[in-house]
Amino acid sequence: MKIAVLKGGRSLERQVSLRSAARVEDALGSLGHEAIGIDVGGDLVQRLREERPELAFVALHGPGGEDGTVQELLEILAIPYTGPGVAACGRCMDKVAAKHEIRAAGLPTADWVAFNATAFRELGAADTLDEIEQRLGLPLVVKPAAQGSSLGVEFAAERDALPAALLAAFSYDDRVLIERYVKGRELALSILGEEALPAVEIRPKEGDFFNFEARYEIGRTDYLCPAELSGEEAEEVRRVGLATYAALGCSGFARVDLILAEDGPQVLEVNAIPGLTDTSLLPMAAEAAGLSFESLIERIVELAPKPASALNG
Amino acid sequence: MSEPNDNPERTPAEPGRPAHRRAHSSRRDLERYSRLFAERTRVMRSSAMRDLMAITARPEVISLAGGLPDTSTFPPASFAAQMTRIAHKSSAAALQYGPTDGFAETKACIGEVMAAEGMRPDPDDIIVTTGGQQAIDLVAKTLVDPGDVVICEAPTYPGAVPVFCSYQADVIQIEVDEDGMRVDRLAEVLDALAAKGRQAKFVYSVPTFQNPAGVTMSADRRSALVELARERELLVVEDNPYGLLRYEGERVAPLYQLDGGDYVLYIGTFSKILSPGIRLGWVVAPPPVLEKIGLGKQATDLCTSTLTQFFVREYFAEGRWREYVDSLVGIYRGRRDTMLEALERYFPAEASWTQPAGGLFVWATLPDYIDTSDLLAKALGENVAFVPGQAAYVDGRGASSMRLNFSGSSEDEIGEGIRRIGKVVDEQVRLYETLTGRGGPAGGESGSAGPEEPADASADVLALRPRDRRTP
Fold first, then answer.
1. Which range has the worst mean pLDDT, A67-71, A105-109, A212-216, B129-133?
2. Torsion angles phi and psi, residue B153, rounded to 5
3. Residue numbers of A annotated as active site
């Protein structure tokens, strides 16, 4: 099959995307497909029209590629693609929308409030920070609403740290959320098709606990796969993860990040297009399930909708 | 000696496309290798920051992040003529290995460059290196055991930090002010070390038009530093890539000249006065140290590129290298002035910055609540880039500063780039005011809520006197 691997783009996660795509292209090649890498830019539509791929493998991360924009274009061009559809991508990329959906589905996620910068600039939202602190309690986690990676995620251990944490998060997006910090074990549940892969536990090393960047560096974080969970815990994590995936309308694959607190799992966020680099969690989970990287890619391709041959005559 | 890859499987079948590419490693592979990695690689990290910096290479981005000299004004005809002469006169020799310490003719050119700054080294004290960067590496390789103390400036050349870290040095940074490294603080730190029975292996300094701060060490401080080095038998590594790029003021004697080469090791380069692409630098050191550096160099790469040494020889033979440097000085002076004017115009009152008399960089410091790594993400949204200050520290300081380069962009680009950075800084300052309830939610168009105390905000990083602030 002729498959276009969409990669790069202008997002801050460009480098991660290029690393994901390089592996995907290799795997597609060894599976006997013809992989054409396309660095997503102004000529994307033109390139797709020229190449006429049977399938697009979306290996983009962050805004632009993971938020439904590229997917929408692919729909218009009637090119089937891997991973979740337009609406699901949009919901996953917007952490605030995702949390509303998750809560509406009766699934657990930490209490939060969300703001855009205008609320502070024009509506005096700063005056509510004390109430927010009282309502959610310290420490707080501040996140840009639309960044896939750890960029701009800040801890505020005390009230005074909140403005600087908000300022940092606002550097990445015009909308941020302030979330209650949930103490517990960090888990990532990758889902392939309708099946949950073994959960991965992320254990930051001492000292790097509040450094989200460290999560992405070998040696600064330990990964346990499968996570050491009791049968009951594993089942509950699986149930919540799958229900979240369904609630957001995901298909193909996605990764649900959770915290396993004392009273059960809480959903943090869903990544519509999780990383596929050699240090990424989805390939790690697949490996624990006995799937090589090639098999994982093959499965993702199989899960994509079939080419609409009627359209091509 | 490294052999070219003769594995037919890996010979490219068509340009740009390997016939066979190794499948990328699985995570398990990676972990298997990671157990084999040397201890020193633990400090060699890739990071999200580095990924961000990669984006700055996009063509639509005005990058004030690099440290690139402008090579566009070097006459192509002259380049072609020199290379042709080399091909006709000395093809075989130019394609051959050369001596590990470099050709005598290259050392003669180095002698000319150093003489232009008042230094007369013995050619036998010189080793030609693959860029100044290799000189830093070789000095560290020769002198540093794991755990040894290396002292450098705060902020320091960002490219030196990974070198010292890779030799597992314990890096201590001494603050810099408008007159360069605080030599009094250095003395205190040396005392404190001595009290613990420790000694610094060497002090690394870029005393003239420092990277990244743009400041120059005063003559008094230079004398004090050389004196201190003699008293305590301490080696000082003087890295001087920019000395000839002076745009105003009087020349200050290099440390090497003051010391005479007993305790000062000198690192120079052709990168900023001719071309960084030729990778030619040098180190001058006392004979016993030089001998060890030479052994280290031999192990690293046998010799510096013969071809580019021939190029430099031909180029210097024309006798016009000073003219070219002077033309660069003219260009860079204009760009520096443009940057300083643009900063004055577009940066908010809460910011401060250095006024370099030469070199390639301005160091700007913002209020301490702004993290310039985060700000870079916002700036990239406006297609402009700089180096976040943290890159110049080993200890996480510098988070509210940034390094701005003015040699690699045109005056128009510099003006526009600073305008864009100023815009995002201004937005963040205003937003912070509303976040802390100081600015009020009115969102007045007039901008600043009034001058703060800039000296206070920058005190932690680089002490500057508050600037004379012209009101617009």
1. A212-216
2. -85, 160
3. 13, 149, 216, 255, 257, 269, 271, 275
Closest CA to A54 of A2, A102, A108, A130: A2
Helix (H) or strand (E) holding B177: strand B170-177
Q: Residue A151: its chain B contacts at CB < 8 A?
A: 48, 377
* Other CB atoms within 10 A of residue B432 CB: 22
Residues B275 and B74: beta-carbon distance below 8 Å:
yes
Partner-chain contact A171 B46, CB within 8 Å: no
Count Cα neighbours of A39 within 13 Å in the Cβ-side half-sphere.
Answer: 9
Which residue type occupies B240?
N
Q: How far apart are CA B105 and CA B126, in angstroms?
A: 12
Dist. CA B238–CA B401, nearest whole Å: 24
pTM: 0.85
Distance from the Cα of B323 to chain A's closest Cα (Å) equals 42
What is the structure's pLDDT at B29? Answer: 62
Taking the alpha carbons at both ends of chain A, their separation in whole angstroms is: 18
Q: Which residue has the tokens 């003239």?
A: B208
- CA dist B304 and B127 (Å) reads 9
Let me know the angle formed at the C-alpha of A17 by A11 and A20, rounded to the nearest 5 degrees.
Answer: 170
Q: Measured between CA atoms, how close is B17 to chain A, in angstroms?
A: 12
Paired sense of beta strands A221-224 and B281-284, if any: unpaired
Strand partners of residue A175: A116
Task: Provide DSSP, B326-343.
Answer: HHHHHHHHHHHHHHHHHH
Lowest mean pLDDT among A126-135, A283-292, B229-238: A126-135
| Cβ contacts of A26 on chain B, cutoff 8 Å | 21, 23-24
